[in-house]
Amino acid sequence: MPSFCPRLSLLLATALTVLMGCSDPQQDNKQEATGADNGVPEYPVTWRFALEEIEGSVQHLYANELKQRIESISDGNIELDIFPYGSLGTSAQLTELTQDGSVHLAFASPGHLADTIPEVGVFTLHYVLSDDSEVNRRLLASDQLLTLFSEPYAERNMKLLGFVPEGWMVWTANKPLRSPEDFGGFKIRTMTSRISAETYRAYGADPHPTPYSQVYNDLQLQRIDGQTNPVFAIEEMGFYEVQSTLTFARPAQFIASVVSNREWYEALPDDQQQWLDDALADVAPLIYRKQAELNESRLQQITEDRDISLVRLSEEERERFRKASLGVRDTYIENAGERGAKILNTMLDLISSWEQELGRSDPGDRD
Ligand code: 6CS
Q1: Does the CB atom of residue 229 touch ligand 1 within 6 A?
Q2: Grouped pLDDT means (10 residues each) for the chain, 367 residues
Q3: CATH code 3.40.190.170 region(s) in the chain
Q4: Pick from 4, 43, 223, 305: most CB atoms within 10 A?
């Protein structure tokens, strides 16, 4: 398993120098990436897309699909340059690079982003999403939800381009985690926002918010007892090599947002904006299927590679966690205010009405 930290800062410094040059990065990058000097685009132009995950991940799959489509829809006029995790910086740094226009497109996960945009912390809350994957698909694609989020992103100079589900969060540890009591004093690595830590404090755990690149070493050196991520990530980051048990409690899905620099997006010539919108719309339905396939095949790889325990919680066990998690919704609303409350309530209403409409909430139909 590679360790990203030491080379990360050196690479980051080098990459930033290359990306930003010596003059005004925002002005230079806008002009360079729209190709619009004196209003006339000089093709091809290159857009930079920064990922929070390594090659082979869901985000990398998504970026490759987007690259294929944007390059074909634009007839080769747009080129997409993909920067996997480790080549530019941590999630928080990628958000800064997007805000200042050094990268044009990026992934921004709510678990890291919620200190900057408290409203997105809703995706770190447990037992909000449906057990029904079709309901969640509708929710994440709904215009109503995207509209509610567009202002909070815009206020931080980002344009929200869509939400991407990456699979259920799974707990890894050296023991089964069947009840909130099992979390008592348990040192769990969480993503870096305060609300991500609160979610586990509610179970009595001792949260350690850290960047993704540090998790493997912290597990190996037993500075933490466990962590949580979707299966594909547990495999590709090697976490399963240093943990004995995977507990499936389906508390939340890992949801990432795809963002761009807001000013850059708004300054794009109409045809470029249309190409981007069309390419994003093409990739959205595809990634639902691809992430599910990837999570499934990676679980098989893990079990073939190691004799690891898989623990699947019963509905009664999940219900105890759900009850213990409810107080964190109040903390979320305290942080995210009225807008956050509206987002949470809209999500709960939409989920409940689609669950009723589809009438498919039995566990057999779940992801
Ligand atoms: O746990 C994390 O920090 C990371 N997990 C995934 C699956 N993607 C990016 C994120 O930074």
Answers
A1: yes
A2: 40 44 46 65 94 98 98 98 96 97 98 98 98 96 97 98 98 98 98 98 98 98 98 98 98 98 98 98 95 98 98 98 98 98 98 92 43
A3: 7-165+255-295, 170-252+306-336
A4: 4
Task: Identify the CATH homologous superfamily for domain 7-165+255-295.
Answer: Bacterial extracellular solute-binding protein, family 7 (3.40.190.170)
Does ligand 1 lie within 6 Å of residue 235's CB atom? no
> What integer pLDDT is reported at residue 247 of this predicted model?
99
Q: Which of 254, 255, 295 to mutate to test ligand 1, by most ligand atoms within 8 A of the CB atom?
A: 254
Environment class of 132 (CB within 10 Å of its CB; exposed 0-12, middle 13-18, buried 19+): buried
**What is d(CA 237, CA 337) in angstroms, rounded to the nearest whole number?**
35
- Write down the pTM of the prediction: 0.92
From the alpha carbon of 52, which atom of ligand 1 is closest? 9
Read off the DSSP letter of residue 306. Answer: S
The DSSP string of 145-208 is: HHHHHHHHHHHTTEEEEEEEEEEE-EEEESS---SGGGGTT-EEEE-SSHHHHHHHHTTT-EEE
Architecture in CATH for domain 170-252+306-336: 3-Layer(aba) Sandwich (3.40)
For ligand 1, whether the C-beta of 233 sits within 6 Å is yes
Amino acid 89: pLDDT: 94
Ligand 1 touching residue 225 (CB < 6 A): no
Which SS3 state, helix, strand or coil, does residue 312 take?
strand
Cα 108 to ligand 1 centroid, rounded to whole Å: 9
153-162: pLDDT as tens digits: 999 999 999 9
Question: Which atom in ligand 1 lies closest to the alpha carbon of residue 212?
Answer: 3
Q: What is the pLDDT of residues 302-329, one digit of tens each?
A: 999 999 999 999 999 999 999 999 999 9
Partners of 188 in beta bridges = 207, 226
Pocket test for ligand 1, best of 88, 107, 109 (most atoms within 8 A of CB): 109
